Amino acid sequence: MKTLDFILPEGADATEPPPVRDGVRLLVATGAGIAHARFGQFAQFLAPGDLVVVNTSATLAAAVDGKRAGTSVEVHFSAELGHSELGSGAWVVEVRPAGASAGPVTDLRPGEVISLDAGADLVVGRPRPAGQSRLWEARPRVEGGVLAFLARHGRPIRYAYVPRPWPLAEYQTVFAREPGSAEMPSAGRPFTGEVVTDLVTRGVALAPIVLHTGVSSQEPGEPPQPERFRVPAATARLVNVTRQAGGRVVAVGTTVTRALESAADPDGSVRARHGVTDLVLGPARPARVVSGLVTGWHAPGASHLALLAAVAGESLVGRAYAEAIRSGYRWHEFGDSCLLLP
Hints:
- By secondary structure, the chain is of the alpha/beta class.
- It contains 6 helices and 17 strands.
- Strand 8 and strand 9 form a beta hairpin.
- The longest helix is centred in the last third of the chain and has 13 residues.
- The radius of gyration is 20 Å and the shape is globular.
- The mean pLDDT is 93.
């Protein structure tokens, strides 16, 4: 997608949480043009009968300290696998050098044991998925389970563009209910109780899905990893009724888009579904259900750009990104927002 090739200007990263969640900037891109607003005005751009679908996954304190052969590392717990050839309770993990690293360790080996806090450790298995060396299947040996261990010893995953640590509460959305995401479903972060109330009073409905995100530090061009999701029956009914009545189905984030499209039949009708999705949206698989998308701003080469184009079209996404760069919008999880309404 050459129209989505761009260079992120220096200084475009959002380096800390904004003082007011719904005070971030909102770029609204439609077929009629582009408008600039604040996120607190979000509901003004929707209409009675539209449906906003949100992700209720809560963010884990998924980063913990570790040691391998005496060398300090940071382990990112990306996704729970359940049963694998390593036994029950396996996880997908990413192992990085300690500190503000630019990428994973490059010499991880199957069978290696990485020690963690409080006498816990994990046994490294094989790359998962195969064909790459960033994410590995591993079996944690943790008393009381991984979620309890992370709650006691973990911290939010943080990348180099955020120079100081922030509490886990800064990485939760107002919709967070079910712990499971390695990183925040960040498109939902600017929502506040006031924004939700504004939507409801304008006749816009809301409905939940769950998709637990893995680590987002893909290499350029690397597809999204398999992720656990659940689309409830009530949400499926609301989506179908909205589409039949001519309303728009607006997904809050790429996570919601992936979940809804994973639950869609070829005709675009949605059924209650749950499991693990490996769906990759793009030119070969455009969106069938989602007709509007709230999103943050993604890095050059990110696989999320193909998903945006699958919903809104490459031309509209390209114009939105060009305008965001020209107007100084801020990138990443603490940054500004975009509403795509093709």
